[in-house]
Amino acid sequence: MNWSRLAEQVLEGTIDTFYMCGLTLVFTVLIGLPMGVLLVVLDRGGVLDRLGGSRLLSRVTHRALSIIVDIGRSLPFIILMVALIPVTRFIAGTSIGATAAVVPLSAAGIPFFARLVEIAIREVPGGLVEAVESMGGGPWSVIRTVLVPEALPAMILGLSTTVVSLINFSAMAGAIGAGGLGDVAVRFGYQRFEPMYVVVVVIELVLITGLVQSAGSWAARRMSKR
Amino acid sequence: MIELSGVSKTFPGRRGPVHAVDSVDLSVPKGTIHGVVGQSGAGKSTLIRCVNMLERPDAGSVQVSGQELTTLSPAALRTARRHIGMIFQHFNLLSSRTVAGNIALSMELAGIPARPDRIEELAEIVGLHGRLHEHPSRLSGGQKQRVGIARALATNPAVLLADEATSALDPATTDQVLALLRRLNAQLGLTILLITHEMGVVRNICQSASLMENGRLVESGVVADLVGHPGSVLAERLFPLVTEESPDHGWMLDLAITSPLPVGDLSLRHRCEVTLLAGSVEQRGGTRGRVRILVRGVSDREAFLDDLKRVGAVVNHSHGGDSA
Ligand SMILES: Nc1ncnc2c1ncn2[C@@H]1O[C@H](COP(=O)(O)OP(=O)(O)OP(=O)(O)O)[C@@H](O)[C@H]1O
Ligand SMILES: [Mg+2]
Question: What positions does the domain ABC transmembrane type-1 occupy (chain A) (predicted)?
């Protein structure tokens, strides 16, 4: 058992995992948050249910978004990853490596987070929207002053759940050449039969998951001074 | 100040369309307080939401401060709404903001700078000084409604709409909030349209009132005048006569009064016994209310009735013969 080599490999895997998940998280929030908001406001009875004065346009946009999100959520990650290889090549120039893995990871993370954002926003009492409308606020004001701030604690919780899922997915990405902790566990622990690698990676993942969840809960609690 | 005419709103329902508001005409003069009462489901909320177009009427005209709202573009409507404040049964305060932040909200939305001294001043007006930096969750119901009122007043509206604004409050707190509304009406000349199912609220602060049933205003009028209308359901509910049983002999009269009833004087002049059985009388800038009296031993009923008319009492019901 070569402990220093193990430490080196695990550290490298950790860095790769953090890099993949960190970069993916940026896209997930930047795209998933607006998507989640749109899923609520474009829906029947939402503040944008007449996009540009047209009920049809809202319905169609909402449907399209909803279908995209459902597809992204229903495909097992491993299949999504394989199916997206051409897209990944097109965007990242390659389908192998940590950077390339960000494409399928985002494709899984964005819809996941978008649904959680949607759920969080639907919990905001309708009376608050009405209050802002009664004060002369338009759809954008409603989103900016009510929907997002009031749903923020729940969205933070959703974000930590998303991060945990991303770490989970990234391990699978690792199995097909993206590097990261999953790669370390499979390559050394499984293929070369060194169970210590698996044990260390499992412990690390459990710790990271716990840490992310409690950081999320703590932030949400702090924010929701209710 | 608020002029509704022919306002109708129909919702599709499971068992056919629901005429939530049905050809309603309503006029609330500047600086007055009007109350709309009615049972649950009568359409009161839908009606008040039509006033600021939160609910767009299917037909009719809605004018506030002389401006027709039904034909405005969405942008113009948003501007118009800044002059129509609204307060709610469940307060609808943002939990993500402090009291000051909630008061500032209406100013932000109206594009008015939310200066701290102005927020301070508003808090002072509604009696919330010193609580500005707390979150709404730390406040009592009455205090939350004060925040709601301050928020509504921040843009200097001419009109305040209140949908069951005191229904979530206990009686003592209700009285405090009503006193605040009455003060704002007197000091700022604020026109208030309020919805309630509590007759006490109407008795307490409304100059005029309407009764709503199945989407229609079945009765409407100045509270002091309603009392004098024989058969007025509103007057009966505003000033209820609570008696369990009627006496088996004697002449029983239900009277609407708009000045104090000189019971002793009537008794002396007609040499009869006048007993007060039940009553509900208010004295607030004049007397109004209803009483039930039992008269025994009167010889000339006509003269007695004439005398009642002379003292400003209107007979709503009369019952029973005079056998004693
Ligand atoms: N958005 C809506 N869609 C369908 N039906 C509605 C809608 N809003 C109100 N209604 C119906 O219109 C009628 C009047 O409702 P409204 O809320 O105005 O009554 P209300 O007098 O305010 O009652 P409450 O005292 O219980 O608040 C009810 O039958 C209600 O079911
Ligand atoms: Mg209602």
Answer: 14-213
